[in-house]
Amino acid sequence: MAEPALNLSPSPGDDAKTTTCYMCACRCGIKVWLQDGKIRYIQGNREHPVNQGVLCAKGASGIMQHYSPARLRKPLLRVGERGAGEFREIEWDEALEIATSWLAPIRERNPDEFAFFTGRDQSQALTGWWAQQFGTVNYAAHGGFCSVNMAAGGLYSVGGSFWEFGEPDWEHTRYLMLWGVAEDHDSNPIKLGLGKLKAHGAKIVAVNPVRSGYGAIADEWIGIRPGTDGLFAFALAHELLRMDRIDLDYLVRYANAHWLVIDHPGGADDGLFARDADGNALCWNTDTNAATDANAIGIAPAVVGEYVLADGRKTRPVFQLIADRYLDPQYSPDAVSERCGIPADTIRRIARELTEAAFDSKLSLPIAWTDSWGREHASMEGRPVAMHAMRGISAHSNGFHTCRALHLLQLLLGAVDAPGSFRYQPPFPKPIPPANRPGKTRKADSVLDAAPLGFVHGPEDLVVDAQGQPRRIDHAYSWAYPLSAHGMMHTVIRNAWAGDPYKIDTLLMFMANMSWNSAMNTGQTMQWLTDKDDAGEYRIPRIIYSDAYASEMVAYADLVLPDTTYLERFDAISMLDRPISDADGASDAIRHPLFDPQTQLDEDGEARDVRGFQSVLIELGTRLGLPGLVNEDGSPKYRDYADYIVRHERAPGVGLLAGWRGEHGDAHGKGAPNPEQLQRYIDNGGFWREEIPESARYFKMANRDYLQWAQRFGFVPNDQPIVLQLYSETLQKFRLAAQGHGAMQPPAEHRERVATYFDPMPIWYEPFEHDQTSRTTFPLNAVTQRPMFMYHSWGSQNAWLRQITARNYLYLHPDTGPQYGIADEDWIEVTSHHGTITAQAKFAANVQPDTVWTWNAIGKRKGAWRLAKNAPEGEKGFLLNHLISDVTPKGDYANADPVTGQAAWFDLRVSIRKSDAQANESAPQFAPLHFKPADERPLRYGAQLRESTSRRRNKETTR
Hints:
Blueprint: E1 15-20, E2 29-35, E3 38-44, H1 57-60, H2 62-66, E4 76-78, E5 87-89, H3 92-109, E6 114-118, H4 124-134, E7 139-140, H5 148-155, E8 166-168, E9 175-179, H6 187-199, E10 203-207, H7 214-217, E11 220-222, H8 229-243, H9 248-254, E12 260-262, E13 282-285, E14 290-293, E15 307-308, E16 314-317, H10 318-326, H11 333-340, H12 344-359, E17 364-365, E18 369-370, E19 376-377, E20 380-381, E21 385-389, H13 391-394, H14 399-412, E22 422-424, H15 489-498, E23 506-510, H16 522-530, E24 542-547, E25 559-562, E26 571-573, E27 585-591, H17 613-624, H18 641-647, H19 677-683, E28 687-691, H20 704-713, H21 729-738, H22 748-757, H23 768-772, E29 780-785, H24 792-796, H25 799-802, E30 810-812, E31 827-831, E32 836-843, E33 851-855, H26 872-875, E34 909-914, H27 943-958
Parallel strand pairs: 6-7, 6-23, 9-10, 9-21, 10-11, 23-24, 24-25, 29-33, 30-32
Antiparallel strand pairs: 1-2, 2-3, 4-5, 4-25, 8-22, 12-16, 13-14, 15-16, 17-20, 18-19, 26-27, 27-28, 29-34, 31-32, 31-34
Helix pairs in contact: 3-17, 4-17, 5-14, 8-11, 8-12, 8-14, 11-12, 21-22
C-alpha cells in the first residue's frame, strides 16, 4: 500500500473553542484546540482586540496550568494545626454549611467582624458588591499592594492612568518613555505596540534600574536609582519650563493651569480655588481685568501673576505655582544628577528630545472634531510623545506623587490624549476624582450605602470613627492612608492578629498567597496566622480560603473552597471592573467552561469536585439571605455566576457585560438583560467590542462626540468636559484639615504626616526606608521583577514554564560584587534592617551598580504546589520578601505610601557579604507542608495522546 501523502497543514485537534486567557492579567483571546476531549494546543485568537493572535509563553503553557498536579480536588477541613497543611476532604454541602454557620452570626452581630480580601481576582464587580450586601466595610482587592499608586495618581490628576486605563498611541508616537515597566503585565499588547514603534523609527527610552525585556530592545536605557523617578521627572519639567517649551494653550484649554488659587496662609480657604457663587472656579480675564468663570470661552486668562479678588483675597493662577516650584534650582539637572544616578547632560538631552518630538514633528491628523464648548476643529493636532509606567515607580512610599509627576510632565507637553501621546481607554477618562465614594454606613437591612471601595473627595469621606480612628481592619481610608482606593491587603493579617482596631471573627481570602510571596515580613506573617491567645485559641479565629491550587496559603486555612481552573468557569471581564478596552474602542469579554470539572480527573486518575469561586460566593450569599441575592420569599435570586452575569443590573440597563443587551440582543452599552447574552459572546469569540467614532478618538476629556458616546454607555454622567488637574484641591483639603481647619481633622499623631504629604502639587521625598536607615550599613537598593515568562506563583509552578527557570539568583553588577569580596555564583548573605537571607549571587551587567535584583515568586516553600521534595524552587529559590518589613524602620506606620497606603515593595535597602557557611541551599527554610506528596516521575503532557493518535492513524492506513 502506498504511503499516505504528507499533510502539510495538520489540524492541531478535532475541535477548537475560543475563550480568554488567565495566565496573567493581560486577558488575551485564545483558541483552545481539543483532541479526544483533552487540550492539544493553545494559540492566540487573531480576532481578539487585546492580542490579535499574539500569545506568550505563559498563555501557551495554560495546558500545564489546567493539568497541574497542584490542583485541589475537593473542599478541605483542617484537622491538624493551622499551617501544617493537614486536612480531611469533605463534601460541598458540609463546606457551605460550615461557612454559613460561621458567617451568619457575624452578620447579625456586627458585619465588620468579617473581612473579605481578594487577590488576583478578576471579578471585583461581583466580590465588592457581595461585600456591600453583607454589610462589611472590610473588603479589599489586590491593588493595594500592586498598583493603587498608579491608579489613584492618574485618576486624581487626569481622570485615567497608566497600566490598564490607558496606552501609548502606538500608531503615531515618535518618542516613548517606559518608566519602571516590567514584562509580566499587559505584555502582548505592549509587544505589539513596541513592534509598531520599531517599524516606524520611533525612539524608545527605558527608565528602570534593571534592563530586561522591553528595556533590552529600547534605544536607550536609563539605569536610574530606585525611588528617584519623580526627581528625574521634575528635572525634565524644570528644563521644559526653563526653555519655555511647553504647551500653554493646551494647559488652559484642558487643564486647570489658569484657575486662581487663594493665597491666604493660615486661613481656612488657603490653597483652595477661588469660586463664584455657583461654585464655578475662577480665572483672571486680562481682557476685562476681572475674575471670571474659568470654563468660559472667548476670554484671555492669565497664567502668571498675582491677582486680588473683589473681596480683597489674593490669588495666583495654578501655572504660576507650577513655575515657582519646578523652576527652583533644587530641581535642575545638576542638582538631581547624583541622587538619580543620571548624568546632568543626559537629563538635558532627554528634555530637548521630548520637546523636539512633541513640538517640532508637526503631527496633524486631518480629522474634524468638535470640542465640549461647540468649537469646531478641522484637524487633531498631535504631540507624539508617549509615556507608560508600571509597578517600578508605583511600589515606593513616594509612588503616588511620582505617578502624578509623570502626568505633570505629560501635561506640560500637551501629551495627554493628543495624537501620538498617552491615550485613554474607555470607560476612561472619568470625572476627577471619580464619583463613587467608599461605603461606610449600613442601612436598615445591614447593606452598606455603597461598595466598600471608592474614591475620597475630602476628609468627610474617610472611614473613621468619631475620634478619627480607623473603622476598617486594614486601616484603609483612615487618616494614616486616606486615598487607599483599593484597600490595603498587606496590612490585614497583622491588624487582625493584633485586634487593631478590633478583633475580627472570620477572614475570607481568594487567590492571595499571603503566607508567602504576597506578604511582606513573610516569616512573621506565618506566625501571626498560627498564633494563639492565652486561652489556646487562634488570634485570627477562622480563615476561609479559596484557590485552585495547593499554594502555601492553603496550609493556613481552616476551610478550603477549591476553585476551578480558568478553562472550567465563567468569568466576566467587565467594564465595571478591569476592562480590556483599547484607545479606539470599548471592549469586554468572558471566560466560559470548556470542560466540566466533574469530568476532569486529576493526575492520579481521581475525580475532582471543584466549583468556581464566584458561583460558590453566590450560593453562600443565598444561604445567608443577603438582600441582593435572594428574592422576597427567600428563594435564590441567581442560579450561579453565569446567571448573575446575565441578569444582574448595577443600575437600570447596566450590567456586567455591555454587549448584546436588550430582549432581542440588539442593544449595546445599556439595555435590559438578554437571556442569550453569554451565547452571543461565545459565538463572537468570547468578546464584544464597539469602535469609538473617528471624530471622538482623541481629546476625550473635552471632545463632545466622545463624551456623548460615553454618556450613552454610562461611562460618564454627562457630556461636560473633564478638567485635568495640575493642582489637586482634594489634597489641599486634607492639608487644611491637618492645619486645624474644617469639621473633620486628623488626630494629633497624624497631623504632621498629612500636612507634609498631601501637597496639592506633586512632590518628591526620600522613600521611607531609604530615609530611616543608614546608607553606610545598607548601601544597596534591592528590587524584584516579574519575568515575562511567569506571573506570580501561578506560572512558577507550571511544568513547562519551570523549564525556562526553576530557581532564581540575586543579580549583582560585575563591578559591585568585587567591592564586597563576592565572586560570580558565590553564596551570599543579604541583610536588611529587618532580617537576613542566604542566596546565590550571579553577575549581570544589566543593572544599575548600586542595585541588586532577582525574579519574584520563583522560590517556593517545600511541600507546596505539589512540587518534588527536592525541587530547585524549594532548595535554591528564595524570596526577598523575607527581608521586607511590613512596617517602616521606625515602626510607626505600614511600609507604604502615606497617601494611598500602597505597599512599598521596592524601598528595600540591603548589605551583602559572602556567606561563611558552605551553603548550597537558600535560607530561611521552613518545615515542609504536609500536602499530598508529589509524584516524582517526570511530568509530561501529550505522550499518551500521541500514542493513541498514532495507533488510530495506523489502523486507518491498514484498512
